[in-house]
Write a structure and sequence with these properties.
The structure is a single chain. With 414 residues, the protein is an alpha/beta fold. The chain has helices spanning 3-6, 13-18, 45-58, 68-88, 102-117, 136-145, 165-168, 191-200, 212-215, 220-223, 248-253, 288-303, 306-325, 352-361, 374-380, 396-413, and strands spanning 26-27, 30-31, 33-34, 96-98, 123-127, 148-152, 173-179, 205-208, 227-231, 242-246, 264-267, 272-274, 330-333, 342-347, 364-365, 367-369, 385-389. The protein has two domains: 3-43 and 305-412, Aspartate Aminotransferase, domain 1, CATH 3.90.1150; 48-302, Type I PLP-dependent aspartate aminotransferase-like (Major domain) (Aspartate Aminotransferase, domain 2, 3-Layer(aba) Sandwich), CATH 3.40.640.10. The chain is 41% helix and 16% strand. The protein has a seven-stranded mixed beta sheet with strand order 4-10-9-8-7-5-6, with helices on both faces. Strands 13-14-17-16 form a four-stranded antiparallel beta sheet, with helices on one face. A two-stranded antiparallel ribbon has the order 1-2. Helix 3 runs antiparallel to helix 12 (288-303) and helix 13 (306-325) runs parallel beside helix 16 (396-413). Bound molecules: pyridoxal-5'-phosphate. Pyridoxal-5'-phosphate binds next to helix 5.
């Protein structure tokens, strides 16, 4: 790799790549080109080591034990919560509830907030570009309660029509649910502005941060969102880790999500009372090693220059956008002015699954399908897209390989 490529925009990508052992392998005899970080980002060695150390030296159940190992595990687990708190700038660590991922986190709010505060005739606003994880739980709730779902529309670029938001909010609106960054289009939504509009009418906002936390610096106090939901595996941590950030005043008022051990204060056969935050929402044994891994991933992210990483990812995206849009027959899906490192596309006359298969032969991992966003596909009148998603460990050379592989697809199907 040339020095120019290695140090694009002052970002030493070769050094960064050394942190991720999985990137060293070959697939089908070719060096792995991993362009599927929006599905799951790869895990750096320090996170792998931290998980192994826990399993080797500290493994024990948390909170309940007085013995040495249990205390060690509890300290590491609660330490991870402190790291999350600082990472997203929550006011208090009890506002950070550990869950197994974004889907579980949104369901926690659906049950905890929705069951309590949403009634017949009430309305929930979701955006037109949501992932199924931020649609289906609300539909299930609406069905149960006789509530209605309202959809904030988007335009052909994949940008939300914010001027419609004020029109959609009524006295029956109980919550606005919107993603920070679209996994299928790459759009970065103006969360601060959405919260501002919603709060003027007294409506809380839930942000699906599955893609946001991986690419952007998150300050929940500055955004002023009421809930921000994170999946650890999208931000270089193991699967099974995740966070629901909620303003304490909401979390205090909400019903617990699941019942069981650890979330109670007292239990009799007649009645149970619930533990204080955050335990009220953490029934049963959590994914201890994964959450400790999330803490290690945050340490890792804090150890790199995130501003540079963001700029580098933006440069990769711009480079890929220019390369792919120059190829005849390629249609980019999602051309918002504010985008994070996702590029969705179709190739005329070729099903995205065939693109994915040909890419795999070249050692290139992309995702093909509806990306759990079928309404987005319906909007653009396509069954699916091919999606390349970048992280700060990808290179310009890999983007070149992506473009070459698209050319190959076109030749095969010509
Ligand atoms: N929301 C968005 C925007 C996503 O991209 C995803 C996963 O792809 C999810 C929610 C669901 O996350 P998880 O599968 O980790 O629960």
């Amino acid at each position: 790799m040339s020095t120019a490529a290695k140090e694009l925009n002052g970002w030493d990508v070769e050094k960064i790549r050394n942190d991720f052992p999985v990137l060293r392998q070959t697939v089908n005899g070719k060096p792995l080109v991993y362009l599927d970080s929006a599905a799951s980002a790869q895990v750096p060695q320090v996170v792998i080591d931290r998980g192994s150390r826990y399993l080797q030296d500290e493994h024990s159940n948390i909170h309940r034990g007085v013995h040495y190992l249990s205390q060690k595990a509890t300290t590491a687990f609660e330490g991870a919560r402190e790291k999350v708190k600082r990472f997203i700038n929550a006011r208090e660590s009890r506002e950070c509830i550990f869950v197994r991922g974004c889907t579980e986190g949104i369901n926690l709010v659906t049950h905890g907030y929705g069951r309590k505060f949403v009634g017949a005739g009430d309305e929930i606003i979701i955006s037109a570009m949501e992932h199924h994880a931020n649609i289906v739980p609300w539909q299930m709730l609406a069905e149960e309660k006789g509530a209605k779902i309202r959809v904030l529309p988007m335009d052909e670029r994949g940008e939300l029509q914010l001027d419609q938001l004020e029109v959609l909010i009524t006295s029956r609106t109980k919550l606005i649910c919107v993603m920070h960054v679209s996994n299928s289009l790459g759009t970065i939504n103006p969360i601060k502005e959405i919260c501002h509009i919603a709060h003027k009418q007294g409506v809380p906002v839930l942000v699906d941060g599955a893609q946001g936390a991986a690419h952007l610096s998150i300050d929940v106090q500055d955004l002023d969102c009421d809930f921000y939901i994170i999946s650890g595996h999208k931000m270089y941590a193991p699967t099974g880790s995740g966070v629901v950030y909620g303003k304490a005043e909401w979390l205090e008022e909400m019903n617990p999500f699941m019942g069981g051990g650890d979330m109670i204060k007292t239990v009799t056969f007649e009645k149970s009372t619930y533990a204080a935050l955050p335990n009220k929402f953490e029934a049963g044994t959590p994914a201890i090693s994964s959450q400790i891994g999330l803490g290690a991933a945050i340490d890792y992210l804090n150890s790199i220059d995130r501003e540079k990483a963001e700029r580098y990812e933006a440069e990769l995206l711009a480079y890929a956008t220019a390369k792919l849009s120059a190829i005849e027959g390629v249609r980019l899906i999602g051309t918002a002015r504010e985008k994070a490192s996702v590029i969705s596309f179709t190739v005329e006359g070729v099903h995205p699954h065939d693109i994915g298969t040909i890419f795999d032969n070249e050692g290139i991992a992309i995702r093909a399908g509806h990306h759990c966003a079928q309404p987005v596909m319906q909007f653009f009148k396509i069954p699916a897209t091919a999606r390349a998603s970048f992280a700060f460990y990808n290179t310009k050379e890999e983007v070149d390989k992506l473009a070459d592989a698209v050319q190959k697809v076109i030749e095969v199907f010509a």
